[in-house]
Amino acid sequence: MTLIYVGFGLSGTLALLLEPSISQFGWRETATFVGIALWVIGIPLSFVIRHKPRQYGYLPDGGPTTAVYEPTDTPNHRSSSEIVEQDTDSSATDFTARAALRTRAFWLIAFVFFFQHIATSAVMVHIVPYLESVDVPTTLAARAVMGMTLFSLIGRLGFGFLGDFTNKRYLIAIALTLQTIGVFIFSFVSMDREWLIILFLLIYAPGFGGTIPVRPALLADYFGTRSFGTIFGWLALVGMLGGVASPVIAGWIFDIRESYRLAWQLFALVSIPAIPMILLAKPPKARQERNFT
């Protein structure tokens, strides 16, 4: 997961190419070029992606050569056969999407990322307009975008690596704490305090990046891989509700107050509940025997 998500972080280097293109040709022409490039490069690459390892004679890392599943009844739940299913590509019993949606852990994790996306989505959309509004040069604002994605690699690689050895909930809590502090620092950036941009990048970006590979790994630990796509899709849907609303709210606050400061401080406060919530999101009972706590 970590190595896959490095690609997103490296995309920040394109900001330095897009800024002069926008200045020279305009944003419409640049957006058109980026769209065509996505077709020309992205679509052909998608055809070389393979599906399940079993279809090519491989097993998942650490997977057994055979999988045995014997459903048992538990006193406090429906029978395990109704809660979990077995897939030959997985080394453990797996939740169906419907069963995952009935767990407390799923909804806690979903709302953790709902609160997180409120801040991250607004920052991503408004970082350049915000920096320009406090008289930071556009070139420096573009470098901040590049820096945000590149510095996020520290979190992606570091937290992703630690996720194989450490409780993932604790790692996500640390990453969310860094992100919250970073957004609060971001609210004080000005032309006279441009150095705060560096401090913001050093704190916010690793926190932002740190949750990215750990989140899907945590879901796989809790719910297995058979219905992973559906479960992750529902999680993303809940999370992005916050991501859709916050850029609009940030823009509205700027229109009213001619400043983004209140928006960033508000979003930092809204991010705080996500920290205790992820700590409370313990493994579903049907999977506690796998010792993920």
Please supply descriptive tags for the structure shown above.
293 residues, mainly alpha, Growth Hormone, Chain: A, 2 strands, globular, disordered C terminus
Summarize the structure in words.
There is one protein chain. This protein is mostly helical and 293 residues long. The chain has one domain (2-62, 87-290): MFS general substrate transporter like domains (Growth Hormone, Chain: A). 68% of the residues lie in helices and 1% in strands. The protein is built from 12 helices and 2 strands; from the N terminus they run ααααββαααααααα. A two-stranded antiparallel sheet has the order 1-2. Strand 1 (84-85) and strand 2 (94-95) form a beta hairpin. The two termini are 21 Å apart. Mean pLDDT is 83; it is low at 66-92 and 288-293.
Write the layout of secondary structure elements.
Blueprint: H1 2-10, H2 15-25, H3 27-46, H4 80-83, E1 84-85, E2 94-95, H5 97-101, H6 104-133, H7 138-162, H8 168-186, H9 195-223, H10 228-257, H11 261-271, H12 274-280
Antiparallel strand pairs: 1-2
